[in-house]
Design brief:
Order of helices and strands: EHHEEEHEEHEEHEEEEEHHEEH
Strand content: 25-35%
Number of strands: 15
Shape: elongated
CATH topology of the largest domain: Pseudouridine synthase
CATH architecture of the largest domain: 2-Layer Sandwich
CATH superfamily of the largest domain: Pseudouridine synthase
CATH class of the largest domain: Alpha Beta
Helix content: 10-25%
Distance between the termini: 75 Å
């Protein structure tokens, strides 16, 4: 139970990286934090404190929840009071402010926002997370774009090279509900529907195909995936949308609708390459010679787009059917191919 004499806040802590706390501070758990592990709560709100510091203050009992010690895996409950000890946080030079160009790009990408979710049509070339070589990704940039949002978390990943729909959750209840749908772990809730558009090399044969392949990361950096028995099962449905016969200036191509039933790294790209229909513009799994040739026709990046999503948030009763149109750099070449098709 809360101590009414303690200062409290229903929004996440806002802590300057160089702040030294002269006295113990307290935080009242709001709806956004309820259900979150306390170690994850501290890691997020005491950035850029190292993990070793977070676990040390938990282990020593310096962090208290309603005056009691809390183990790292303890899940916070609404209304509890969290005691934060006085600590010093050094400036994290790796956290870079987002550029004005990125913030403008993110603002334009917002397609829908309500009390629970934010939907963006992510442009190709933007990583969803910052990392080595990419100091600021979509989620870091969006938090800077909307600093007053008490909670915003990335629901799922999308390859840097892939464009299309990305979901952000504005509260933990939404995040947990959508994660359950992504993982198909709730038998009483319809799973999320996720559809992509992909332009691939060659003429697709045999109509709709339901493909299951085991995928495993390879190499020291684990940045590439291979089909290998014993790996994690990846399941997709490939549906031919339009076939483009070869012409004098390009090879035969096929435009596919793809529904993914699992969410493995590079799932669609790896499966299509294994089926000898690599995605056009794929610089990891594709046909490099044909990629270079098709650049002259305007396809200068991976032709993979997260086009549609459909899901329901049972707790709100809201159904969502989302559609992100193809960007001009993909739609332009496709329009020309369609015009060629009419003349054949």
């Amino acid at each position: 139970m809360n101590n009414p004499n303690q200062p409290s806040s229903h929004t996440p802590l806002s802590i300057s990286p160089s702040t030294r706390f002269q006295a113990v501070s307290f935080h009242t758990v709001g709806e956004a934090e309820a259900g979150q592990r306390i170690d994850n709560f501290l890691l997020k709100h005491l950035k850029p404190a190292p993990k070793s510091l977070i676990y040390r203050i938990l282990r020593k009992g310096e962090v208290r929840v309603d005056k009691k010690r809390a183990k790292p895996d303890y899940r916070l409950q609404l209304g509890e009071s969290v005691r934060i000890p006085p600590i010093r946080l050094e400036q994290n030079n790796n956290e870079k402010p987002a550029s004005a160009q990125l913030l403008q790009q993110l603002e334009k990408a917002v397609m829908l926002e309500d009390n629970n979710i934010i939907v963006l049509n992510k442009p190709a070339g933007l990583a969803v997370h910052g990392g080595s070589g990419t100091p600021t990704g979509l989620i870091e940039g969006f938090r800077q774009l909307r600093p007053n949002l008490p909670y915003v978390e990335l629901v799922h990943r999308l390859d840097k090279e892939t464009s299309g729909l990305v979901l952000l959750a504005k509260n933990r209840q939404t995040l947990n509900a959508l994660h359950a749908q992504f993982r198909r772990e709730d038998s009483e809730t319809l799973p999320m529907k996720k559809h992509y558009k992909a332009l691939v090399l060659g003429t697709w044969q045999g109509g709709t195909k339901h493909i299951q392949l085991d995928l495993q990361r390879e190499g020291n950096q684990r940045q590439k995936v291979q089909v290998k028995a014993g790996g994690k099962t990846a399941e997709s449905i490939f549906i031919p949308h339009r076939l483009y016969p070869a012409t004098a200036d390009r090879p035969a191509l096929s435009l596919l609708n793809v529904e993914i039933l699992t969410g493995r790294m590079h799932q669609i790209r790896t499966q299509l390459a294994h089926l000898n229909h690599p995605i056009i513009g794929d610089d990891r799994y594709g046909d490099f010679k044909q990629n270079r040739a098709l650049q002259t026709l305007g396809i200068k990046r991976l032709f993979l787009h997260a086009e549609k999503m459909a899901f329901r948030l049972d707790f709100s009763g809201q159904n969502y059917t989302l559609h992100a149109p193809l960007a001009k750099d993909l739609q332009g070449p496709l329009t020309r191919f369609n015009q060629q098709l009419k003349r054949l």
